[in-house]
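Hello support,

Our group uses your service weekly, and this is the first time we've seen a run hang past the timeout. The protein is ABC transporter substrate-binding protein. I'm not sure whether the cause is the sequence or the server load. Input pasted verbatim:
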Amino acid sequence: MFQRTLRTSAAALFLLLTAACGASAEAESSSSSSSSSSDLSSVTLRVGATGWKSEEAILQYAGLDDTPYKVKWNLFQGGDLQLQAIRAGALDLASSSEIPPVFAAADGEPNFRVVAVQRAATLNQEVVVPKGSKVTDIAGLKGGKVGYVQNTTAHYFLYELLKQAGLKWSDIDAKPLLPNDGLAALNGGGIDAFASYGTSITTAHQQGATTVGSGADILSGNFLWSARDSVLKSPAQKAAVADLIARITRAYAYVRDGHEDGFAKITADATHQPLAQARKDLLDAQAQRPTEARPVGDDTIASQQKVADAFTELGALKEKLDVKSFWTTALDAELRKAL
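Update from on-call engineer: The timeout came from a worker crash unrelated to the input. Re-ran successfully.
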């Protein structure tokens, strides 16, 4: 199982690198032809999505997908893979939690910058155990095999939950797994618990899993938009990025303004869950923290620094990382105007 995960990750990265080679000419063409922010017709943004293409779906639902530029949505199992794609030149814009950019920047000179923050709910970020498990809390994981999605929110909140329970990372047999592989390992008895997020947690509960720990109050709710450096050098691409992020904020506002049921139906169909559960999850998420974008601020940089320091403490980062080195306010003015 775990060898298969490594092979899957390697294959995914190979495909990303291959895609980057084919996409580089397109990116250069787009950049050179988009000489001003008013000329968006020649811009194509390659944008990442995790779990399912919820951003694309909500823009369509709210009637805000009529962009004057083209958007190619690319689906990934995690924000960490989106940042790998950014590094490989296969994406222009990635959406992730605070964690993936930390590891992408620590892996060498970053070719991206965090340009905006999307505030969103931290629900469905959990450590779950399979049906019939005798484990009832995090302390019960001592000595057990625990799967987690590496370099993501799951990695971070699992570490923090262990500390809260008086355990060290070395007190568990930690197994890095992709969401789908983690679910298979959980149901097949390969691991005793799984730390994950989003649709994988929803599916785990549908299969009888129970929650033994939650990252809801550990995570900041800051989800980051990271753009390739080449995007920031093009006025037209910058304008398109600001416009797209603002449209997503307006789309969520539209849903909250009495249009929850329709988007809950779309979500239920896409995630294969009961409509009532999808509606409840949507309402709970928007009640906890309405999804909306904001420009870069000192507080958002400080929040990610806290996360990076925790990974240094854990030993996942070899040395302290100054996160503000890969943040920029270059999009702030255009984003404020677009919002």
